[in-house]
TrEMBL record:
Transmembrane segments: 48-67, 79-97, 103-124, 136-158, 164-186, 216-239, 251-270, 282-302, 308-326, 346-366, 372-392
Record organism: Filimonas effusa
Subcellular location(s) of the protein: Cell membrane
InterPro entries the record matches: Efflux_drug-R_Bcr/CmlA (IPR004812), MFS (IPR011701), MFS_dom (IPR020846), MFS_trans_sf (IPR036259)
Gene3D superfamilies assigned to the protein according to its UniProt record, in alphabetical order: Multidrug resistance protein D
Main location: membrane
Protein name: Bcr/CflA family efflux MFS transporter
Topological category with respect to the lipid bilayer: Multi-pass membrane protein
A GO term from the CC aspect: plasma membrane
CDD domains associated with the record: MFS_MdfA_MDR_like
The keyword ATP-binding is annotated on this UniProt entry: no
Any Pfam family the entry gives: MFS_1
SUPFAM superfamilies in UniProt: MFS general substrate transporter (SSF103473)
Length: 406
């Protein structure tokens, strides 16, 4: 389906953005509730953080299953299925009576949420030419990025006024509204393909054909490891801001929103920059800058001169660059694929959330009760991403698929 055949682009991007944002919204909205959940369930904040890690694991694994389903049955049917799973799991989270059950239900909730991430990316690949897809990913990121600005603030207000259980009730209602919007306003971008096999061997072969493409594994792995620093901030900031720096739940929501505002602004600046520079040029020039910012934050935390305003400034700069880096890495990684764009999108999402799960879980391994664990993981992710790009630079410049520039 050509892009000009799509009715209203604003409505399309809005719905796809909501589908993709339901996962991040589920993460960010309950962050201010960590202390309240721990107290209510008679557990520690560290144990509650494992429900965040289980969500990352579920959203990573689930995407691998939805990729083939989206290629076999079209886009909308699997998306309905996933959102309904999400809705039911959200209700379960609202009535969970202990931390272990919450951890399990968050995993199931993620299995439903991840279809929105895979499906939205695949539909953009269906509906828009490759050269335009990076701009569309930036618009998609705009909608996604609004959720972490709103979610922690709303979560803080809901937690203090109605209790943490109400957070998950609201998420269930949001899922229902998204289902209705999909039914009435979202076009089907790919017809079912009966020839697409769901047997394990063809699926694994299809995944292998995607992952062996140099353009895919270079930008997918480098981009997703770099993005894992963002998830380390999401996982670590509740403790650092509310416990270490002593900020209230509602004020934490505003601080979080301030930092995410940079990601939103720069994701839209990306569309302007793409008129003058290629996606490759932006990634290779800005990823080292982001790594330098992350290392500066780590040094400040380690040597004790990192205060809250400086942390906010550095994280604002870090996340702002993420608004440019990840949309371009996403567009380049899935650009070579047409018939199996769903599988390519699934692998990209699995890498993103898989590395996000590792980065968020690794924070809990540190025993230091300050900002060092969070900033150390962020700096490590950024530096590894730079190293991957440097190693691959020669091959990319000489052997890159021409699809990247089409």
């Amino acid at each position: 389906m050509d892009a000009h055949k799509v009715g209203n682009r604003f409505i399309l991007i809005l719905i796809l953005g909501l589908l993709a944002a339901i996962g991040p919204f589920s993460i960010d909205m309950y962050l201010p509730a960590f202390p309240a959940i721990a107290k209510s369930l008679n557990t520690s904040i560290e144990k509650v953080q494992l429900s965040l890690s289980s969500f990352f694991i579920g959203i990573s694994v689930g995407q691998l299953a939805y990729g083939p389903l989206l290629d076999r049955y079209g886009r909308k049917v699997p998306m309905y299925f996933g959102i309904i799973i999400y809705l039911l799991a959200s209700v379960g989270c609202a009535v969970a009576g202990n931390a272990d059950l919450l951890i399990v239900l968050r995993f199931v909730q993620a299995l439903g949420a991840c279809v929105g991430i895979v499906g939205s990316r695949a539909m953009i690949r269906d509906l828009f030419p490759v050269k335009e897809s990076a701009k569309m990913f930036s618009l998609l990121l705009l909608v996604i990025a609004v959720s972490p600005m709103i979610a922690p603030t709303v979560g803080g207000i809901v937690t203090t006024t109605l209790g943490w259980h109400s957070v998950f009730v609201i998420l269930a209602v949001v899922a229902l509204l998204i289902c209705l919007a999909m039914h009435f306003f979202l076009p089907e971008s790919r017809k079912p393909d009966p020839a697409f096999s769901l047997k394990p061997k063809p699926i694994l072969t299809n995944f292998y054909s995607v992952i062996k493409e140099p353009q895919f594994y270079t930008y997918a792995i480098a981009g997703c490891i770099g993005a894992a620093g963002q998830y380390a901030f999401i996982a670590g900031s509740p403790y650092v801001v509310m416990e270490y720096f002593g900020v209230s739940e509602q004020y934490y929501g505003w601080i979080f929103a301030f930092n995410i505002a940079g990601l939103i602004g720069f994701s839209q600046l990306n569309g302007i920059l793409l008129k003058r520079y290629s996606s490759q040029q932006l990634i290779f020039s800005l990823q080292p800058v982001q790594a330098l910012i992350a290392v500066t934050a780590l040094a400040g935390a380690y040597f004790g001169w990192l205060n809250l305003p400086l942390l906010c400034m550095l994280m604002f700069a870090f996340l702002s660059l993420q608004g440019i880096l990840f949309p371009n890495a996403s567009a380049l990684s899935i650009a070579p694929f047409h018939n199996n764009a769903g599988s390519a999108s699934a692998l990209l999402g699995a890498f993103q959330m898989g590395f996000g799960a590792l980065s968020s879980a690794s924070i809990t391994l540190f025993k230091s009760h300050n900002a060092v664990p969070m900033t150390a993981v962020i700096a490590t992710c950024s530096c590894i991403s730079v190293a991957i790009l440097l190693v691959a630079q020669y091959r990319i410049k000489n052997n890159m698929s021409t699809l990247a520039m089409d």
